[in-house]
Design goal:
Blueprint (H helix, E strand, L loop, with lengths): L19 E4 L2 E4 L19 E11 L3 E4 L2 E6 L7 E13 L5 E4 L2 E4 L6 E5 L4 H7 L3 H12 L8 E6 L8 E4 L2 E5 L12 H16 L5 E2 L5 H20 L1 H18 L10 H7 L6 H22 L1 H15 L8 E2 L1 H10 L5 H11 L6 E10 L4 E10 L24 E12 L2 E11 L3 E7 L41 E6 L8 E5 L2 H10 L3 H11 L7 H12 L5 H14 L7 H14 E2 L4 E2 L1 H7 L1
Parallel strand pairs: 9-10, 10-12, 13-14, 15-21
Antiparallel strand pairs: 1-2, 2-7, 3-6, 4-7, 5-6, 8-9, 11-12, 15-16, 16-19, 17-18, 17-20, 22-23
Helix pairs in contact: 2-3, 3-4, 4-5, 4-7, 5-7, 7-8, 11-12, 11-13, 12-14, 13-14, 13-15, 14-15
Length: 607
């Protein structure tokens, strides 16, 4: 090797405030926002990567955990009370992914995978065993999905005391540091899902974000989105499709509320250079990640899941090529793969990326419908707008309230599907263009036909209006729309192919039918949110929400939403009926009927 000079820097830290943190008998680093240079000399820039030889000398009762492969542990004769841990990172990584944790950790090798090790404080060992018992499944799934082995020689998960941790997760090369708050034992069930998702996401970032990095700061959204997409695949595979759809619906809802004027586009050169990565932290950073994942999921819907998987495999295999000087990924290269492997047309991609990635704002669709009985056709009026002013593409603007409707946008590429539920079945109509006129009138042909309704005669001894003396209201009238119609209910974009805010104006009974008969969790969530927001609440709405709450076949998160909605409907207008239903539900599960008090056994379980 010519023209190579070895530079030796001797340094020490005095009262460090950032980068490295001491607490009691433990130490850990946190390199968020270029803090690596605060605790060791380096070029603290994401695009500068190199290999590392790391040596840490600590007291013999402590364990030093760092990046790469542990080569050896050295105890010298001169100082037998100390021990030196020697690590080697033979894959070039950025300085921000060099991490260190020191403490009296208990080491738990993964019984299913010799590459993985888990560590925690001695008092949390039993919780650690329960928490990481699933981890080999996600590790194997990622390797299977990407058709590639784990890029680093080992992977270590360290759980430090929650009082010490600055954040719940700190990801480094071949290593992740977590707060002990994520640990749980077999008696805890409510924390299992969130903990598993965080551990799975940290592992996904080892491939996309650390091993494969962004070519420029402007491409960071893509790696963040790919790691989130891989995590979403894990959720769908191991936690269920209902959980995956629920989380995506809530994430999309949050993005549409926040992605307004003043928001930073995912890929905007000027903003990326001036913000120095601050746009990726905090709540707004989380929402940016959700938007990146949603955009990639839209592309997956367009090209198909198998084609998208092949793109990810091609990216990983290309990174494994030893001839390549660097393992980077750019938006331009991904766009090329979407065309070459995903078979998406260039005009579509040329319009898709500038509109979704280089601009801020999401489509807002307001719909109203009527049924034309003579033509047996649904007339659907659509008004399209945007959560952001289009001028915000070039420079962030100030101004609009979250979710405010703005007309006059250029639209989005593609067509949105409208799903109609009729008496004879369900029918999809990909008939709503997302570009062109902002005001559109669609005509959707119905397949079902409504039979002629018989006119009921008053019962003998009944009232002249056909109602019984002690009955409420006869069911002779068609309550589906307040009209004679074969339409049960209508949904737009049922498969969430768009990141959009959709408002459909349809009668109350149609929303109740959607809640009671549609098995999709997103449809149920939309119905619940709409029913509890009606200005005039009826007993039929309260009863529908209560039926959803007490139905054990309904997804548990939907039942929770129903409980919150019942609380909102508890007003004088409904005679506090929602509150009564909630109290009755609580008593049916927590009260002892003999003493009319909470059961001692149930209290112990709750405690």
């Amino acid at each position: 090797m010519q023209n190579v000079k070895l530079v030796r820097i001797e340094y020490w830290l005095e009262k460090p405030e950032v980068g490295v943190h001491f607490m009691g008998s433990s130490l850990h680093t946190n390199n968020q926002l270029r803090r690596a240079h605060c605790w060791f000399p380096c070029v603290d820039f994401g695009l500068q990567r190199c290999c590392y030889d790391l040596e840490f000398t600590v007291d013999s009762k402590y364990v030093a955990v760092s990046n790469g492969t542990l080569l050896c542990q050295v105890i010298t004769k001169d100082d037998p009370s100390s021990k030196t841990y020697v690590y080697c990172v033979n894959i070039p990584v950025a300085a921000e992914f060099i991490t260190l944790a020191v403490g009296p950790f208990e080491v738990l090798p993964d019984p299913h995978n010799g590459v993985v090790s888990h560590m925690c404080m001695p008092s949390n060992l039993s919780k650690l065993q329960c928490t990481v018992s699933f981890f080999h499944t996600v590790f194997s799934y990622y390797e299977e999905y990407l058709a590639a082995t784990f890029p680093f020689g080992s992977y270590k998960q360290v759980f430090i005391d929650s009082e010490t941790a600055l954040s719940s997760t700190c990801v480094g090369a071949s290593m992740s540091i977590f707060s002990s708050q994520l640990l749980y034992d077999e008696r805890v069930i409510d924390q299992v899902i969130s903990t598993r998702i965080k551990l799975a996401n940290a592992l996904a970032q080892q491939w996309f974000g650390i091993y494969i990095t962004a070519e420029t700061a402007n491409d960071g959204w893509l790696l963040d989105g790919l790691a989130g997409f891989l995590t979403d695949c894990f959720i769908k595979r191991f936690l269920g499709n209902n959980e995956a759809r629920y989380r995506r619906y809530k994430a999309n809802e949050a993005v549409c509320k926040v992605d307004v004027d003043g928001a930073t586009a995912l890929s905007l050169s000027g903003a990326a250079a001036e913000l120095y990565g601050t746009q990726a932290i905090g709540v707004l950073g989380k929402i940016r990640s959700w938007k990146a994942v949603a955009i990639l999921q839209m592309l997956e819907k367009q090209m198909g899941p198998e084609s998208f998987r092949k793109i990810l495999q091609r990216i990983v295999h290309k990174a494994e090529d030893v001839i390549r000087a660097s393992r980077t990924l750019s938006t331009k290269e991904f766009r090329h793969l979407a065309n070459k492997i995903g078979n998406l047309e260039r005009p579509f991609l040329k319009e898709f990326f500038p509109r979704w990635v280089e601009s801020c704002g999401c489509p807002v669709l307001r719909m109203g419908l009527s049924y034309n009985k003579r033509r047996n056709m649904i007339e659907l009026a659509v008004l399209r707008g945007c959560t952001s002013n289009m001028s915000s593409k070039s420079a962030p603007a100030r101004g609009t309230v979250s979710g405010e409707f703005q007309a006059g946008d250029d639209g989005w590429p593609g067509m949105m599907s409208v799903r109609v539920y009729e008496l004879d079945g369900m029918y999809d109509h990909p008939s709503l263009p997302m570009a062109g006129d902002t005001c559109q009138l669609l005509e959707i042909q119905c397949h079902s036909k409504l039979a002629a309704r018989r006119i009921q005669r008053p019962k003998k001894g009944g009232k002249g209006d056909g109602s019984d003396d002690n009955g409420e209201v006869t069911a002779a009238l068609d309550t589906r729309m307040g009209l004679e119609s074969p339409l049960l209910w209508l949904r737009a974009d049922p498969e969430m192919e768009y990141l959009a805010q959709i408002q459909i104006h349809q009668p109350v009974q149609m929303w109740i039918s959607q809640l009671e008969k549609d098995k999709d969790v997103v449809a149920q969530l939309q119905a619940i949110a709409t029913l509890c927001s009606f200005p005039r609440l009826s007993f039929s709405i309260v009863n529908a929400l209560n039926s959803c709450l007490i139905d054990p076949k309904v997804f548990w998160r939907v039942r929770i939403e129903s409980a919150f909605a019942l609380a909102k409907t508890a007003t004088e207008e409904t005679d506090w009926d929602g509150l009564m239903h909630l109290i009755k539900f609580y008593k049916s599960r927590r009260f002892d009927p003999d003493i009319e008090l909470p059961s001692l056994f149930q209290v112990q379980l709750l405690w």
